[in-house]
Amino acid sequence: MSDLPIGYWLKHLDRLLENDLDRTLAEESLGRRRWQVLNSLRNEPGTVAELDRRLSPFLDEDESTVAPEVEALRGRGWVSGRDPLETTPEGDRIHDALLERVREARERLTEGISDEEYRVTVDVLERMSANLERG
């Protein structure tokens, strides 16, 4: 077991996850935020305000909306509509191809980790977050 604190491992893993996702999405020149928007709309069409709420836990402090990402996806012909926004057939095709790659990346991430270990880890992190949110 390492003597390094949990904060080190959280930041290290976050960087690794970001870099791995960037590589996974690179073929379509898609960044993490645009993937999150595309994935969210593929699963559940909605407005920009609804997307902002859904994705707020993932936004950086200087980001208040995913509207620019929506417009970029619209410009590529992958998103249409306004109320609700939804993926186009081409957006669905791209999403489904990328989703397979994202799943493969997740499998690499959890290789050698049982479902129980994964659930326990997420549970502990969730409780630690709740402890600090309470102050």
Structural key phrases:
single chain, 135 residues, Arc Repressor Mutant, subunit A, WH-like_DNA-bd_sf, WH_DNA-bd_sf
Briefly note the CATH topology name.
Arc Repressor Mutant, subunit A
Topology pattern, helix = H, strand = E: HHHHEEHH
Radius of gyration: 17 Å
- Main beta sheet: strand number and arrangement? 2 strands, antiparallel
What does this structure look like?
By secondary structure, the protein is mainly α. It has one domain: Arc Repressor Mutant, subunit A. Helix content is 67%, strand content 4%. It has six helices and two strands; from the N terminus they run ααααββαα. The chain has helices at 6-25, 32-43, 48-55, 67-75, 89-109, 115-134, and strands at 79-81, 85-87. Strands 1-2 form a two-stranded antiparallel ribbon. α1 packs antiparallel against α5 (89-109) and α2 (32-43) crosses α4 (67-75). The longest helix has 21 residues, at 89-109. The protein is globular, with a radius of gyration of 17 Å. The model has no long low-confidence stretch (mean pLDDT 95).
SSE topology:
Elements: H1 6-25, H2 32-43, H3 48-55, H4 67-75, E1 79-81, E2 85-87, H5 89-109, H6 115-134
